[in-house]
Amino acid sequence: MPQTSNHIVVAVTGGSGAGYARRLVRVLLEAGYDVHLTMSAAAVQVFAQELDCILDLNQFDPEAFFGPEFSPELLDRFQYHNQFDFSAGIASGSFRTAGMVICPCSMGTLGSLANGLSANLTHRVADVHLKERRKLIVVPRETPLSSIQLGNMKRLADAGAVILPAMPGFYHDPKSIDDLINFIVVRICDHLGVETSLMKRWGEK
């Protein structure tokens, strides 16, 4: 389906990998996209643990979310939605987007999506993307995986979602954690059709 919108939804849930979410949102904004962000309470706990970032879902602070890389000019294309604000435009199929990414995606969220449950805004927006046949990218970060979790991934893949586990490669000769984060962000952007130059690709000199 051709892209008909400049809007991209990023949902952050309670899986480990807060750094992926922070980098992804910034890269999308810098690429000129309008980013709609929503986060779960568990995601806030992960941000505090992994990035020493304290967030309040009811009074969201973009400067705290972006951390030391915060640039006020990025906020012109950034919008935050509370997890229980079902009146948000992104909750409707009539609101056009270029895709949605759930990064990282907890196994609880994965199970809800695979079974068509809509207990929060992330669930609802993902359901919208599936029914509207729009790009939905799910970035699970868990190991090992049970047969239930694997089955949920297959069910989502069969419904049209892209299952893109946070499994960074090493062929690009990473020198830092940032290089590993960039690997996953680049792969997500590839599936969204967003151009990036964050890493050296296989076969490039």
Automatic annotation (TrEMBL):
Keywords per UniProt: Flavoprotein, FMN, Lyase, Prenyltransferase, Transferase
Binding site for dimethylallyl phosphate: 171, 187
Catalysis: reaction(s): dimethylallyl phosphate + FMNH2 = prenylated FMNH2 + phosphate
Example of a GO MF term: lyase activity
Enzyme class, first EC level, given as a word: transferase
Domain Flavoprotein stretches: 7-192
Keyword Transport recorded: no
Origin superkingdom: Bacteria
Gene3D superfamilies from the UniProt entry: Flavin prenyltransferase-like
Enzyme Commission designation: 2.5.1.129
SUPFAM superfamilies for the chain: Homo-oligomeric flavin-containing Cys decarboxylases, HFCD
Pfam family, any one: Flavoprotein
Positions bound to FMN: 14-16, 40, 106-109, 141
Matching InterPro entries: Flavin_trans-like (IPR036551), Flavoprotein (IPR003382), UbiX-like (IPR004507)
Keyword Transferase: yes
Similarity annotation: Belongs to the UbiX/PAD1 family.
NCBIfam families, per the entry: PRK06029.1, ubiX_pad
Function: Flavin prenyltransferase that catalyzes the synthesis of the prenylated FMN cofactor (prenyl-FMN) for 4-hydroxy-3-polyprenylbenzoic acid decarboxylase UbiD. The prenyltransferase is metal-independent and links a dimethylallyl moiety from dimethylallyl monophosphate (DMAP) to the flavin N5 and C6 atoms of FMN.
Stated name of the protein: Flavin prenyltransferase UbiX
Gene: ubiX
